[in-house]
Amino acid sequence: MADRLFAWSMSTCAFLVVLSLLWVLGDVVTEGLPHISWTFLFSAPENAGRAGGIAPILVSTFWILLIALVVALPIGLSVAVWLSEFAPVNSRFANNTGIVLDILAGVPSIVYGLFGNAFFSIYLGMGFSLLSGGLTLACMILPIFVRTCESGLRAVNNDWRRGALSLGMTKSAAIWHIILPGARPALVAGLILGLGRATAETAALLYTSGYVDRMPGSLLDSGRALSVHIYDLSMNVTGGDTAAYASALVLVILIMTLSILAQGMVDRWFKRRLVVS
Amino acid sequence: MKMKAVNNRSDQNVRMVLVVLASSTALLLAMIIAFLFGESWPLFAHIWNDGQWGDLLQNNGWYPLEGHFGMMPMILSSLAVTVGALVVALPLGLGSAIFLQFYATPVLAKGFGTLLNLLAGIPSVVFGLWGLTRLVPMIAQWQPPGASLLAAVLVLSLMILPTIALTSSAALSGVPSDITAGGKALGLRRMTRIVHISLPAARSGIISGALLATARALGETMAVLMVAGNVVQNPSGLFEPVRVLTANIALEMAYAMDVHRASLFASGLLLTALVWFLSWGAHRMTKSQVKEHSHG
Asked: ipTM higher than 0.90?
């Protein structure tokens, strides 16, 4: 009896969780879907976003993400390669780098926003711009990207390393031609994870890339990201709720596509590793 | 496992470049701390001159334009919102994790897991929007003004539920099967096996997941900002509007000058310290679990 009661209450918990989260998602879809059309996606906002579309906002979002990726990708990958392939086991420096990365991953996004505002916008004189927003996001996604890539690289079968060594390959050649391709799906997954986090971010962008909702003319122009647009519409614009829900739906679809892609990559990779070993 | 490679000059060059890049992460952390301290310095100087250190943590009120920087109401609100979210989300998340690990059929478990993963990725601003347009009016019908501590707690708990459920279920699935098999061999009921064997064995993993969720709740800005009402006051009731530290930064950065701006950076510093403390706890937890397993 008690056993059945326990099972029943656990299932109720799970049911409640699914129900409440689906409620949120369902509201976003039902409120947003009727408002989405080609003109919404490809025209400029009018009347502070109540009417019109989100074209310049999509363009700004795209540029901010691109800058964040272009900066975070090479640095993150290099650090991950160093941590998994070069760093001596139990070396103090490697351990400390790991700790630093974990600390950085825990810093709240609004604090990254403060830092970006003080450093990129004011100290380096970039002002409120796509560039300073993108760089701030690059700092933010760096730790999570490094950690995912590192675990992916570590999971590459040691036989591959031994094989490369026995063929007389240098370490850098082995990394470039064997280990990185072997870990590629994990690298892609880390990339998409970071991308998802960057797309969802609002607080770090408020005071780095700014609010301006016109089409950005250059990278030093201020531009409004999609998430900032949703925030502004719902908080500061009366009657902007429908447009906010439509933008939210676009944002959710964007992020879900990215995370499904990442999940698929990881799954396929694990299957393949089973076959190889 | 590490292997000694043939010594080679190009390897050495690559190694040097990578070491420099790896230390750039440490540089980034140092710069973040340096800038937070540097920018909040005017506040410390201001307080030093006035000789009223207690002011920062006392209830003299948050009147930045008149030189009163009492952060205590906001610190308390931050803690209240975080603890409230944890109280709501922890049992539900743990329950879902147990369901996922022990009761769900494989197909159901896969679907549920995928759903949780997807929902963990929903941006906080979307939760905020939903809370603002659905939850707040609902609470307002019952107990005006609606935008309140309760709304913030509910929205935040929704946000951290997937995280708690996923980390707990990972911790439960990591329990070695010979322990649970032993329970089965003794003829224990399923509930007894779960409550007295699996949960204690997965304890440290579950706690570290909960600590990470707490850190996330404490650092969350947008969702709380949108639903909490943002009145600076001590959290005295569930239906009172409150303002948390993160929301305060986001609200006032737009026009803050001099000492006021410095006080916002100081609150950022405080927030970061709190979150680091929590992550450190989570780190210690995972480490102790690894040790336990290697001994067991």
From this structure: no
